[in-house]
Amino acid sequence: MDKKGGGITEEMAYARMARVCSQKECAPFDITLKLKKMDLPEPLAGKIIERLKKEKYLDEKRFIRSYIHDKLHFNKWGKKKIILFLKQKQLPPELIEGVFSELPGESFGESLQPVLEKKWKSIKGESDYEKRGKLIRYALGRGFSMDEVMACMQKMKIGESFDETE
Fold first, then answer.
1. Which has the closest alpha carbon to 78: 145, 128, 130, 11?
2. What is the DSSP string of the chain?
3. Cα 55 off chain centre by
4. pLDDT at position 106, please?
5. What predicted TM-score, i.e. pTM, was given to this entire model?
6. Please, are residues 49 and 31 in contact by the beta-carbon 8 Å criterion?
7. Rounded mean pLDDT, 134-153
8. What are phi and psi of 104, to 5 degrees?
9. Distance of CA 136 to CAs 35, 51, 76, Å?
10. CB contact burial 73-96 (16+ within 10 A = b; e otherwise)
């Protein structure tokens, strides 16, 4: 990262990571990757991460809350997909579940119905059965459970007269 060939000091690396963390929420895993790209030794990277946590630049719970909020409201993802991506960031599963338990249960189903209604209009298929299958696969790919998908489709009355009424 340093183009002059000189080594980067601990203080310089800390300052860069503090700036990154002050601009957006980051997971410790993301910061670790950035520090590895700077060719910092593992113990030094761990020391910088701990300092960032102590000074509240890094907060796993705050990151998880922010990530869940953004993916629910902007990307319209389901719980399963959000959990998968949070696990890829190497965040503790009990912390992830703790944050999810704070959320109202209906917040996932609310985002599903408009997404399915919009997708239903664009799905092409020989029969309603085929179109329903494509819609179910689409919703499962977005991270929603089969129960949520079926309940939502039943509420929307997909396959009966849905596309003629709206």
1. 145
2. --TTSPPPPHHHHHHHHHHHHHHS---HHHHHHHHHHTT--HHHHHHHHHHHHHTTS--HHHHHHHHHHHHHHTS---HHHHHHHHHHTT--HHHHHHHHHHS-THHHHHHHHHHHHHHHHH---SSHHHHHHHHHHHHHHTT--HHHHHHHHHHHTTTTTHHHH-
3. 25
4. 65
5. 0.85
6. yes
7. 94
8. -70, 140
9. 41, 46, 15
10. eeebbbbbbbbeebeebebeeeeb
Note the pLDDT tens digit of each residue in 45-80.
999 999 999 999 999 999 999 999 999 999 999 999
- Give me 24's structure tokens: 């957006």
What percent of the chain is modeled with pLDDT above 90? 81
> Any idea which residue has 């959000």 for tokens?
82
Dig out the tokens for 138 from the structure: 């689409």
